[in-house]
Amino acid sequence: MRLALAIASLLILLVHGSVFFQQFFFRWERHQTAYFDQAKSLSKNDTERAALTDRSPRIEQTIVTQFGEQRVDRCITCHVAADDPRFAGHAQPLKSHGYSAALGDKKKDNGTWERRHKFADFGCTVCHEGQGRGLQTHYAHGEDHYWPEPLLGFVTQEPWRKDFLAHLKGKEYLEVGCAQCHTEENFAGTPTIAKGRQLFFANNCYGCHKVEGISDGTLGPNLSEAGKKFKIDYLWESIVEPRANAVNSFMPKFNLKPDEVKALVIFLKSRKGINYTETGLERYKLRLADAAKTEGGPAVAAKTLTGGAELIDKFACTACHKLDGKDGGISPDISYAGLMRDEKWIHDHFRDPRAMMPDSIMPSFRFTEAQFQAMSAYLAGRKTGVPAALAGEALYKEVCARCHGAKGDGLGPIAIYLDPSPRDLTKTSFMNSKPRERFRKSIQEGVPGTSMPPWGKAMSEAQVDGLLDYVEATFVKAKRSGQKTRKVPETNPVAMNKASLERGEGIFVQRCAGCHGRKGDGKGPNSLDILPRPRNLRNAQFVNSVDDRRLFESVLYGVQGTAMPAWIDYGLSQNDVGDLVNFIRGMNQKGRK
Amino acid sequence: MSEPTAVVKKPKTFDRLRVLPQEIWSSIFRHPLPDSDLGRSQTSFTNFFLHIHPVKVDRHTLKPWFTMGLGLMSFFLFVILIVTGILLMFYYVPSTQQAYDRMLDLRGSVAFGTFLRNMHRWGAHLMVAVVFLHMCRVFLTGSYKKPREFNWVLGVVLFLLTLFSSFTGYLLPWDQLAFWAITVGASIAGYAPVVGKQMQFLLLGDTAVGQEALLRFYVLHIAVLPAVMMLLVMVHFWRIRKDGGLSRPEAETAVAAVAQEVPKPKKFGLQGLVRGPVLNAGSSTENSVYSWPNLFMAELFVFVFTLAVILLLAMFFDAPLEEPVNMTHPPNPAKAPWYFLGLQELVSYSAFWGGVGIPGLMVVGLLIAPYIDRGRKGVGKWFAKERLLANTLFVSFAILNVILVIIGTFFRGPNWEFVSPW
Q1: How far apart are CA B247 and CA B261, in angstroms?
Q2: Are both A32 and A130 inside the same structural domain?
């Protein structure tokens, strides 16, 4: 007992000793003492030397109230030589902060510099970020992985992805700090941010994302405060791998070089939703002005452009779409749009893409009506069809493979951005269950409400047949067996009325909602695991384009090669399906959304 | 007439000064370090801090493996928490604007700031665990039986207060961990039927965790709960004495019952007029030793041991401090404090049963346990054969809770899905 008591007491004593030691011998004290000693030896006048002799180590801090919230910066406790030009050649933390004309520092006649951003007024974290209150390197520099703002471009945190680390350092990141006050678009001190802003337009980011004062897209998250919410590793990852943090994101993976990504990251990091220099009233006025500015479109210069071709180029349509030689690798080929669609269709699609294709990811850009008209006229005026020389495999590679994939598996390079997804042409069971005529029609006339356009208007019938032959021979492979003749009514025998709609809704909720969703939008709880995805039954363009016979056949006998079962086996009578068809049709009638 | 003048030798100033320290000493401590049994009794009896102990204590009580000092440990942790807590109060401001900055100051520039916070944090976690273990000890040794039923009830209330104190303290750093843990914890309270939402509102002072909640939690944490706990701890200790000390195996209790019939003193003191179970206090058995030094040494050891553990923990492990609160960016998963993760795990199956039903039943079960289990056998023995059913029930309940907490802590990942910690 006594021995244990003695050991425990000794432990207590030891801990106390070590803690007291830690509390009274700080690293920063050593740095300050070293500074005093060296400054004394460098000093040439006696008063300064005497002053240095009198100084004893203490916590130095700058309290900055001007820039946004109050900041307490104790950085100069260690970096005590920051403002002492004699220490320019020393190692950190006793290195003096450099002077540069770019920072606004002025060289006086006697050869000394005067700082533009005096530390006493600005502190340190306004530009460098990091944690001003900390007195230990680990915390002060924000190496602690919980700290939201580590030293910009200097410190990377432990959980950050190792393959990004090399990109996340560099002086350019410091521009983020500059841009908190210097918000001008082409401020000389922030070239990388200007580049990022330019890329933000060049890659159509503005179409989906809102950034206050710059763009007002609504499809993607609002990035007005992205710099405050996210660390640079997260921003980087979200750009190069959009689905890394949000599995359901449909953000395209743009083909960007690392320095472009870096510029974008720095641009986004500089968006913190506040400008340190402005007052509330100024901010309000700016907001009003911004609203007016974003109304007409992103780039002011583009307002003066009139030609559709120029507009399409300026608005970076080919950052996503394919147009002749330029291919953004994200959205459908619009080279033949002039033949496939009329000018009104193109114009309406510009105004509201989802009115024509309910699940399109194309943003509704807020250009002026005149611009829309010019662009529509330009696209509609392009009347060159698919080269007549192309046929069979070459033709497939040219126009089909982008969506349906070179192997015909429906996994072309842009397939993940299309909803509904392109048909998997290798699913023999599906391909053999439908007559050739139907596929022919799909190619010829397109499938309304989907990204499949009417190719018949851009190529000859022989080319269409050649394509079908190629698909059947290369992907379907198996010989088509005789089509089963099924007893399916041509038109819905059940009259559309309130009672039928109610019965239909009852059956729908019970039988269909698991996959097609309670709202019929194809997003039921089971839909995540199903490929091809359940049909969006609120896609009016599509639903109104198919006849009752096809709906009956799909429900009663299922869709082979998909998860849609033959409901006749599960006890649905023809009258039940009639009610269902009425319910589905009812959802897509005009005036209902 | 010559009378001899009485020579009254005046004591010299020097002599007076010489005895002064001794006089001061004896004015504080009425008795010198004891060397006789009488001295031992008097020392215990006349010292304010010692008189709460009996003069003599049963040998059984002193067996280290009987109590393992868990109750005392809880008390010492409580004391350590009060001391460190008061010191931390000098630096803390319960304001959403300042709280987090104060935490950064504690960590960076306040002398001993980190260390105090570590001690307070780990002390609090340890106290929850130790109080729980103390409860297990009391149950498994059957020590809650008559006449100690009510002290058990007090103990259960103290356990709940400990949890609540820890919970209210969890919010104060005002970081992401605190904010979301309390958001989750408070929403568990909201699952109570009828009054759930009102209770949550009363607790938070708002519909969500914010400035009002921070202030309420602060007041509860630093004033209300410690005061109530201190009072209950005093009653808890007083009852131990009045219920006849710690529980002992039956045979000895029987002896105690005989020894209870002490002939009444002729002069009735106040004690003499009091009837009933109070007399247990006077009972002593043959098998007892003097508290000084046996009991006091043991207590000192428990104290030193507890302090050493806390100090070592505080030195080697830093209390977490996450990002400042971001109300729009919940971590996934947002987890309650670890001791509520069992509940959160249950809540993930059923909001009402997990959040209110089962914990409510558990607490009620604990509170009424001594009134249901009224057998007199198996008191003062670990895992007494006579108490097989009760002990089995209790152990399975305790293990179940621990398993749920472990699952909630280590095996739950984003969206509360099962993940392996390896």
Answers
A1: 19
A2: yes
Long-range contacts of A460-468, Cβ-Cβ distance < 8 Å, separation of 24 or more: A460/A388, A462/A391, A463/A386, A463/A388, A463/A390, A463/A391, A463/A395, A464/A440, A465/A440, A466/A391, A466/A392, A466/A395, A467/A392, A467/A395, A467/A396, A467/A400, A467/A443, A468/A436, A468/A439, A468/A440, A468/A443
Does A1 contact B311 at a Cβ distance shorter than 8 Å?
A: no
B259 touches chain A (CB under 8 A): no
ipTM exceeding 0.85? no
Between chains, do A5 and B111 touch, taking CB under 8 Å as contact?
Answer: no
Domain holding A365, by residue range, is: 300-381
Phi, psi of A327, deg, nearest 5: -135, 115
Residues 418-437 of A with CB under 8 A from B: none
- Answer yes or no: is B295 within a domain: yes
Are residues A220 and A179 part of one domain?
yes
A398 and A376 housed in the same domain: no
Evaluate whether residue A402 is within a structural domain: yes
* pLDDT tens sequence for chain B (422 residues): 455 555 666 667 888 888 888 888 888 887 777 778 888 888 777 778 888 888 888 888 888 888 888 999 999 999 999 999 999 999 999 999 899 999 999 988 888 899 999 999 999 999 999 999 999 999 998 888 888 889 999 999 999 999 999 999 999 999 998 999 898 888 888 888 788 888 889 989 888 899 999 999 999 999 999 999 999 999 999 998 888 778 877 654 444 444 444 455 455 444 444 444 444 444 555 677 888 888 888 889 999 999 999 999 999 998 888 888 888 788 888 888 888 888 888 888 887 888 788 888 999 999 999 898 888 787 878 888 888 888 899 999 999 999 999 998 888 888 788 888 77
Q: Is B3 part of a structural domain of the chain? A: no
Examine the domain organization and report whether A434 and A518 are in the same domain: no
Q: How many domains does chain B have?
A: 1
End of a domain among A247, A269, A291? A269
The domain total for chain A is: 5
Contacts of A19 in chain B (CB under 8 A): 112, 115, 315
Shared domain check, A170 and A201: yes
